[in-house]
Write a structure and sequence with these properties.
Helices cover about 0% and strands about 45% of the residues. It is mainly β.
Amino acid sequence: MRRLPAVATVLVLAGGLASPAAAEPGGEASDDTQAPVITIAPPAGGVDGWHPATVQVRVLVSDSHTGATGVSRGSYVLSGATTGSGTLGAGNTATITLSNEGSTTITVDAWDRADNHARAVTLVGVDRRAPVVTIGPGAQDGDVYARGQVVPFTFSCADDFVGVASCTGEIANGDHVDTSTVGRATVLVTAVDRVGNRRVGGIAYTVVEPYLVPQQAPRVDGDPVVDGAPLVAVGPATSPAASSVTFQWRRDGVAIPGADGSLYRPVAADAGRAITVAATASRPWFESVTLVSPPVTVRPGTLVATGAARVSGTARVGSTLSLTTPSYGPGTTVTHQWLRDGRPIAGATARSYRLTAADAGRRVSATVAARRTGYATASVTSPATAVVARAVPKVTGHAVALGGGKVRITVRVAATGVTPTGSVVVKRGATTGVVRIALRDGKGTAVVSRQPRTRVTYGLTYAATAGVGAGSGRVAVTVR
């Protein structure tokens, strides 16, 4: 509260020292040394200079003592809430209207004809503001309470200008609001300031049975995938609103140990399972309620490979190819399947593969399949080899003269990693065919007769098969 000076005028007297006194008629100097009298008169009914509405302040200047020379002039200046200035009018008076809220300083100066000076200063306030009513702590407007809930009602009143004259509630400050009956109720507080401005404040509240009524079930937000981003539990809506919510995540209806926060990251055990969250809503003085979200089905996770599938080795029948596989982390089982022109090769599931005759002229690759519980199978196929070439044979022979023009000829055809089949044609000289020897396990034997009894060189010619290329050799013997 700001207290302003009382309405009574402040009179300041000053001798006429600043300038010579005015002369009386007849030529003698005046002996008037008293300043004029200034009266500033606000209307009655104010409190400590404050008024509840627009005020008109009357200013009067007089100079009527013995030997007075009379009022010469007067003026006023306004500062503060209202600003301005003016001069005294007829009868050395002025009426000043103050309508702006707040305090205004009125300064009046007056001089008599002997140039004696007087100054009066006063403050006048206008306060149209009603006091402020503050509710709380405790019960608040719009609150919902359980029947029988104990809720204190506290309040206070304040006024910045003139102060509070009274601050009265329908129930005593600090008492409890009535929660014995279900329904809507109010508690009012009336504040009046010292100039009569009045404000009524308070609260309206609702009393209900002590049950939280579900309005909306909880839900699970997010993409349900193993090792994906965490799922988010969004709490339920109840009436009245819960003050706290706790969560419990469930897998196929069974509580997941330790999963009791608002976030849950699906693990491998959740793949293909129904995940829900049970939300328990609580509020003081109300019975708690547990609600369960609709289920979401967790998809298998995605295995991430480190490295690539790669085949190394020579693309030739009989050579062995090796497979380098990516890494998928612990707990992962990796299987292999070799492919011939993109189609699986029966039984070829090891990390290495020996090229056979069936591979000649084809391209070979390998597929790596990675499996881990809770994850989708990951499959990657290596780049294919170059076209597989036939094996290169080595053709050798051995001839033994048996006498009588007979010779026993043994031939062998060898190739790395493969056993040649087919036959070897034996010729004497460049053109004379002698015999065709069929191969078994890469070798064969034949006896020829009526050979010339001399030193004979036999040519050995192996015709290409599906997996082995053509080859040739020689063998010499002295026929007897």
